[in-house]
Design brief:
alpha+beta, Neuraminidase, Rossmann fold, 8-stranded mixed beta sheet, 13 helices, 19% helix, globular
């Protein structure tokens, strides 16, 4: 009887389950930033939600109790609460929020319960913060902007900006916890002036010093000038500890306070595509020593505990935790299995237990706890349950050889009822970076609604083209002076690999991507006729236009080895606009109005070039945005525009009229088929 009932219920669920809608994709909750308490009894973490009324993504702090499995929400309200940080003595949980319409400030809740108490009163709001090891003080970073002076200038002369001169520098302040509990305080300013702008920082174990990295100014083009400093709090003495070409950042103290570990380019000038290193230097000064020369990826420092230095890193399409012996440089992987995707590691002070997040092809990101020496994961959250009512596509990692023989990985997304004897439309989704990476995550919730297309009967391919992270330095440098050209080899060879297997309809193929993925899509729209439609999201169309307008001008000289005046030929070879006269693919262009990373002239240039060639083209500008689309309603628009564009060219739906969009309640047909 019960078996029959269970079978009927399962059958009913299968019949009613459907692909998620765009809104359902956007409003999926996610977890991040787990922090384990010093005694390991609790884990604080963020739950990120969608607030359609505010048109905002909002995060709140939750608490999980591993011993009982209980979880509960700690913070509430319209404003986000983020950056949970336990005091080392375990008495307080601090976080950053904008309560009361104010700028972001540090608040704290007693571990035994009660109302949150505002601790900081930073005039320009708090950036990051960290507790001292004795829990008596908090250091925080904040901008030195002078709003009164800025207002006077604006009132007298109107608004203007002096390019690469008008900066607000970031500096470090500290507060005394006892005084802050009596009344919110700005505390004591510890760094000041216009000689540098602070990045990340770390307290020494004895609380007498703060190590930090700083660039000569906050402009992104100065990333390579980041050096390490040590500030002695009592005397105010400030010493530059490490000064070498390329960025040196993210300092972490050794347990005894005698050394500092940090992430470093070790003097490398072309650090955009080269491996970074973990290095150490004596806290009193000296020559830095790299420890991870033999590790062929970018290690991200987590902490330095008595057992060693911990870092996380990609390993192709997996993500792991490693331990580094600072004396021998021996590296040990601590997490398993080999396909694990884990990150956001947080440790108890003794290094015995940790909290972290993992996700995968069949699981949304979840918070786990485990012992460190013997991995025994215990899941604390159940975010994956949100997807239980939906039919989702399957994800798997595949490999093929590119045109030059280079092995390339990709994520193959197939309909839940995939039949290899049938032929399917194919959609390629290309990640940004170029040092980004696509991983086998359970669902796609931004820009490109993969699961909706899969439910309609499409196969999708995400290409980890040359230059992607996770595959080592040599692979990451394969598109140096070969941008677009080699990238296109990797995408088209992936298409050919699937076509040879017999289940792809070559007449119904599309390609899309954002940022660097948008650039590769633009390159394909002007150099290939393999696709029925293409979408270019915030993509580069002309590297010279990009170089002279972007906020990260060092990017192209590092990849193309010169600027446009010095080597115009390489800029022409790798620019989509060079090949505009052979373009024929219908193209949708999407761009943020105030994009400084890939300035919008790139979009206008491609649009006009395609129109001159009589190629069907639409360009949508998302008002008020920079390089990314950061609000739910506009994210809805981006996804609907892509869905409608490809549904027309691959599935035969009516050509979309983007200027006259469908509004709920209208009689027109929804593009979400």
């Amino acid at each position: 009887m019960w078996i029959l009932l269970a079978t009927l219920l399962a059958s009913a669920h299968a019949l009613t389950a459907a692909a998620p809608t765009i809104d359902e994709l956007i409003q999926l909750k996610s977890v991040s930033s787990p922090r384990i308490s010093p005694d390991g009894s609790r884990v604080a973490y963020q739950v990120n939600t969608t607030d359609w009324k505010q048109d905002a993504f909002v995060s709140q702090i939750w608490i999980a109790v591993p011993a009982t499995g209980r979880t509960f929400q700690l913070t509430r309200g319209e404003k986000s609460a983020s950056q949970p940080r336990w005091s080392p003595d375990g008495k307080w949980l601090a976080f950053v929020t904008e309560r009361g319409g104010a700028k972001p400030q540090v608040y704290a809740v007693a571990s035994l319960g009660g109302e949150a108490v505002q601790l900081t009163k930073a005039e320009n709001g708090v950036g990051g913060f960290e507790w001292s090891r004795d829990s008596r003080f908090i250091a925080y970073s904040t901008s030195d902007a002078d709003e009164k002076a800025d207002k006077k200038r604006k009132d007298h002369l109107g608004p203007f900006e002096v390019v690469r001169r008008d900066y607000h520098y970031t500096h470090i302040w500290t507060i005394d916890l006892d005084k802050a509990l009596e009344s919110p305080t700005a505390g004591t300013q510890r760094t000041k002036g216009r000689d540098f702008s602070v990045g990340s920082f770390s307290w020494s174990p004895d609380g007498t010093r703060i190590a930090f990295d700083a660039s000569i100014n906050p402009d992104l083009v100065q990333r390579g000038t980041a050096d390490l400093y040590v500030l002695t709090l009592d005397s105010g003495d400030l010493r530059k500890l490490v000064s070498q070409p390329g960025p040196d950042a993210s300092p972490i103290w050794s347990p005894d306070g005698s050394q500092i570990a940090f992430e470093s380019a070790m003097g490398g000038a072309r650090f955009f595509h080269a491996n970074s290193r973990i290095a150490v230097v004596n806290a009193s000064g000296g020559t830095p020593r790299a420890l991870t020369n033999a590790f062929d990826e970018n290690p991200q420092l987590t902490n330095w505990l008595p057992a060693g230095i911990h870092f996380s890193a990609l390993q192709k399409t997996s993500y792991h935790l490693f331990r580094l012996d600072p004396a021998t440089s021996r590296i040990t992987r601590l997490t398993s299995p080999a396909t694990l995707l884990a990150g956001n590691f947080s440790f108890t002070p003794d290094g015995s237990r940790m909290a972290y997040t993992t996700f995968g092809p069949k699981q949304l990101s979840e918070v786990y706890v485990s012992s460190v020496e013997t991995l025994a994961p215990v899941k604390l959250t159940n975010m994956t349950a949100q997807a239980s009512g939906h039919t989702l596509a399957t994800r798997e990692v595949i490999t093929w050889k590119s045109s030059d023989g280079t092995p390339i990985d990709g994520i193959l997304i197939k309909p839940a009822n995939f039949d290899p004897t049938k032929q399917y439309p194919l959609l390629c989704i290309i990640h940004g970076g170029p040092t980004g990476i696509d991983l086998p995550s359970m669902v796609d919730t931004r820009y490109y609604p993969a699961d909706i297309w899969a439910a309609r009967g499409a196969v999708l391919l995400k290409v980890n083209y040359r230059g992607s992270a996770g595959y080592g330095e040599a692979f990451r440098q394969l598109n140096v002076r070969n941008l677009g050209v080699g990238d296109a080899w990797d995408v088209l060879s992936g298409v050919d690999h699937l076509v040879k297997q017999g289940f792809i309809d070559e007449k119904k193929m599309g390609c899309m991507g954002w940022s660097q993925g948008g650039y590769i899509s633009a390159f394909l729209t002007t150099t290939s006729r393999r696709f029925a439609a293409i979408s270019v999201g915030a993509g580069i169309s002309n590297w010279a236009t990009y170089y002279y307008n972007t906020d990260i001008t060092p990017f192209t000289p590092m990849y193309l080895n010169d600027n446009p005046a010095g080597d115009p030929d390489i800029y022409r070879k790798t620019s989509p606009m060079t090949y505009i006269r052979q373009a024929a693919t219908p193209t949708l262009i999407q761009h943020g109005e105030f994009d400084r990373r890939v300035p919008i002239p790139n979009g206008y240039e491609l649009r006009q070039g395609l129109e001159d060639q009589k190629v069907p083209v639409e360009m949508v500008v998302y008002k008020g945005y920079g390089h990314g689309i950061t609000k739910p309603k506009s994210m809805r628009a981006v996804m609907q525009h892509n869905l409608a564009w490809f549904n027309h060219y691959l599935f035969g739906d009516p050509l979309p009229e983007f200027a006259k969009p469908e509004i709920p309640g209208s009689a027109t047909t929804s593009p979400e088929k």
